[in-house]
TrEMBL record:
Gene source species: Drymodes brunneopygia
MARVEL domain residues: 21-153
Keyword entries, A-Z: Membrane, Transmembrane, Transmembrane helix
Cellular component per GO, a single term: membrane
Membrane topology, as annotated: Multi-pass membrane protein
Name of the protein this chain belongs to: MALL protein
First-listed, main subcellular location of the protein, grouped into a coarse class: membrane
Lineage: superkingdom: Eukaryota
MF (Gene Ontology): structural constituent of myelin sheath
Record lineage: Eukaryota, Metazoa, Chordata, Craniata, Vertebrata
Length: 153
């Protein structure tokens, strides 16, 4: 029977720092999350926000998530995590909660898209809202992938 020494014990992979963040799953999802979330905010703002209650929530979620994700990306790039396991928990909780918030925003944006089909400036607003809905659901999917892929490292 072979003995299990310290080298054979299960070790957790190190958290990436610097440019390795862009090559490591799930951390490589952060930049696409930021870019797609930015598109959601830009496209909703371009519609002149005809449904302020619904689209205001979409803009709040997309802008806040974009800024927090940018701070998280910078903290990984600069190595603030110091390879602490608590960062994995923080990352997973943040991305899970943000996925839920983004799902609510994506559904509201889809409803705003349906409502804008026959409103003033219908063709342009409908197209912008459709694109915003697409990017909102894509961003939701990226946040879900990020949250769950931490467990499969």
């Amino acid at each position: 029977m072979a003995s299990v020494g310290p080298s054979a014990a299960s070790t957790q992979p190190a958290l990436p720092s610097g440019p390795a963040v862009f090559k490591t799953i799930p951390y490589a999802f952060i930049l696409p999350e930021i870019l797609c979330g930015t598109w959601v905010w830009i496209l909703v703002a371009a519609t002149s926000v005809s449904l302020p209650l619904q689209q205001g929530w979409v803009m709040y979620v997309s802008l806040t998530s974009c800024l927090i994700s940018l701070l998280l990306l910078l903290s990984y790039l600069l190595g603030f995590h110091r390879n602490s396991e608590n960062w994995k928990v923080l990352d997973s909780l943040y991305h899970g909660a943000t996925a839920i918030l983004y799902m609510s925003a994506a559904v509201l944006q889809a409803n705003a898209t349906i409502s804008s089909e026959f409103g003033p400036n219908a063709p342009l607003n409908y197209q912008l809202n459709s694109a915003a809905s697409f990017f909102a659901f894509l961003t939701t999917f990226l946040y879900i992938l990020h949250a769950f892929s931490i467990y499969y490292q």
